[in-house]
Amino acid sequence: MTTMTGAEALWRTLVAHDLTTVFGYPGGAIMPVYDALTAFPDVRHVLTRHEQGAIHAAEGWAKATGHVGVCIATSGPGATNLVTGLADAMLDSVPLVAITGNVARHLIGTDAFQEADITGITLPVTKHNYLVKSAADLPAVVAEAIHIARSGRPGPVLIDIPKDVQLEAFDGEIPAPEPEGERHEPSEEAVMAAVELLRSARRPVLMVGGGAQGASREITEFARAWNVPTITTLMGLGVFPASDPLWLGMPGMHGSVAANRAISGADVLVGIGLRFDDRVTGRVRDFAPNARIIHVDIDAAEIGKIVTTNVPVRGDAASAARALTAHARPFDHPEWNAEIQEWKGRFVRHEHWSAGYAVKAITDRLGPDDILATDVGQHQMLSAQLARFEKPRRWLTSGGLGTMGFGFPAAIGAAMAQPEVRTVVIAGDGGFQMTAQELATLTRYRVPVKIAVINNSFLGMVRQWQEMFHGRRYSEVWLGDSNPDFVKLAGAYGIFGVRAESADELPAAIDAWLAHDGPSLLEAVVPHEHGVFPMVPAGASLSEMVETAPEGVAK
Amino acid sequence: MSLPTSDFLLSLIVRDEPRVLTRVASLIGRRGYNIKSLSVGTTEVAGVSRMTIVVSGDRSVVENAIRQLEKLQDVIRVVDHALEKFVDRELVLVKVAIRSSEERVEVRHIADDFRARIVDVGRHALIFEVTGDEGKITAFIEQMRPFGILETMRTGRVALTRGSNADVPGHVYAGETRALEPAVK
Ligand SMILES: Cc1ncc(C[n+]2csc(CCOP(=O)(O)OP(=O)(O)O)c2C)c(N)n1
Ligand SMILES: [Mg+2]
């Protein structure tokens, strides 16, 4: 037993858990932790340019690897700058440990300089949080936080450490990590009930979500063994290979014709690792109106929360899929398959220069191991529609919270986790500017992220809604008068940039962009007004999907 | 399809951690559950507290509330009293205005019928302590209303499962703690 400070004990516990890359930003109340860091050469601290950049990078790290992401901030403004990322990680079930400094214990509650009640503020957007009152508790709290973040349904955990606790002596043991990868087998009863219902199906469909990102193999085996058409939600993209003929694409507001029609026509729907978000279901009352529903989730609170469930199955996605595979009786329903094939032929072809054209040209160039991150907006939905994923954890997007500014820093985190693969981010001209300061992080660490800015000079997604549902009254969505020259912006950080303004210019620009050794930026200047289709208008049912742009609406 | 709304009595066995009450209250507030009363107290086990809450809603809403509450790290167990026999009590202090000595006598007679105790005697008011289930408390208050109720304070309902089983895990009395499938947190 050696005596050390709380700060040192914190680092030792993180190292003992193999969490040796952290994203952070220093400040007064976290200085002892940064001071102690200097004695840990094996820890890689990534200094971002904003705490929001740090936490999204940690999320990107976690989403790409499935391991816990770690970020650090100081008290007050540093801590509150993490809130968006915590809420994002909470809704998308991202395992994260966020560490914040706070004012010394005797100052807590006095409105001291840079004091914020961050445990109070983040209570509803964390899986759990701690205010550590003594250095003696610190390593155990950190170990517990890591465990909570990654077990069951993963999520963010915040640890707030007063400055004097960071300096206090600790002379206990550093806890060893708990084993990862616990399984939660579903009950035999639930599995058999699911099997029985499945066997009765004539128009079955499987729908998998982000909760199955760690169960890709088992899900794929299950789908193939039963020969069931498979839909992957926005968060589930990559769980099931897009090249498989059983794959129908993404459901919901901007989902594929095949996925939405299959849901509306199905008589049995199996949902695994998803939560029937309103962007997926459309009007809930009319969601899968003919289907009996089997819902598999590790989180019992999700089952029956939104849609009425006929067979609830509580368990982890991999265990449940494996159990269901064991009872496989492959479907053979030619009529259902014929209908599905017809639907699969109905999709928007991006034949002319547009955001969709640019996104398709970019995603067509991605290999199966490449990581694709996106920001939030039209370019995100286009990417989700057009990219073809063969593997899980290659797609990083902000689903539940829809956080503009997420994509670029998330790509940085993922690229640092997996330098051996290529990481591309597709962002809008609006959202990219929410965290564009992280260009400095790329430069500092030479992270070879490939940035594509789809520049339509608009907050495109909002513009599309205003066009369709607000009588074309464009209100505060025009950016074209004040956007930067994105190529020059990259250049200001020493990053190579290239621009394409037409379909003709695009291939060479993409070549140069991808071929460049190191980080680079592609600006695709696309027509201002174009819409993302298919679209299910907000509040409508999936069957009311608009397949292509109606008369008078920009394609 | 809407199920009938009624009151559901839940007991939460919780770790005595800072903000545990805030966590429970915040979750309930955020998810829009309708809470009629909430009472908290320590238990015979160090570090473990117990809350009884009355949630009103249809059965499916309450079941979702239970599942959500079970996910809180500091909630050890949620006991759904709809599933087993239980006893519940509430304690109320009622301050009743007294205008004449006749009224004083009359009020005391009613109180006797309810086994209500007088805990404070003033010249123009009496404070009664009455304990019972919801029906009894409501009836008592209704009986006193014509005299003029100056103030009341209710503890909210508290409940225990009947029989020799204990709801606090790992704490065995004469019986066994109930083996429940643990919530996945
Ligand atoms: C932080 C944040 N603020 C506001 C929004 C609302 N919002 C959703 S999409 C969008 C427009 C995004 O514009 P841009 O980044 O240019 O992408 P585009 O839709 O044009 O592809 C906005 C403002 C949001 N999702 N996140
Ligand atoms: Mg835009």
Write up this protein:
The complex is a heterodimer of chains A (about 550) and B (about 180). Chain A is α/β, with parallel strands linked by helices and about 550 residues long. Chain A folds into 3 domains: about 1-170, Rossmann fold (3-Layer(aba) Sandwich); about 190-345, TPP-binding domain (Rossmann fold, 3-Layer(aba) Sandwich), CATH 3.40.50.1220; about 355-540, 3-Layer(aba) Sandwich (Rossmann fold). Chain A is about 35% helix and about 15% strand. Chain A is built from 22 helices and 20 strands. In chain A, strands 3-2-4-5-7-6 form a 6-stranded parallel sheet, sandwiched between helices. A 6-stranded parallel sheet of chain A has the order 11-10-9-12-13-14, sandwiched between helices. In chain A, α11 (about 255-265) runs antiparallel to α14. The longest helix of chain A has 15 residues, at about 50-65. The N and C termini of chain A lie far apart (about 70 Å). By secondary structure, chain B is of the alpha+beta class. Chain B folds into 2 domains: about 5-85 and about 160-180, Alpha-Beta Plaits, CATH 3.30.70; about 85-160, Alpha-Beta Plaits (2-Layer Sandwich). Chain B has 4 helices and 9 strands; from the N terminus they run βαββαββαββαββ. In chain B, strands 5, 6, 7, 8 and 9 form a 5-stranded antiparallel sheet that branches. A 4-stranded antiparallel sheet of chain B has the order 2-3-1-4, covered by helices on one side. The two termini of chain B are about 30 Å apart. Chains A and B meet through loops of A and α1 and α2 of B. Magnesium ion binds near residues 428, 429, 430, 456 and 459 of chain A. Magnesium ion binds near residues 459 and 460 of chain A.
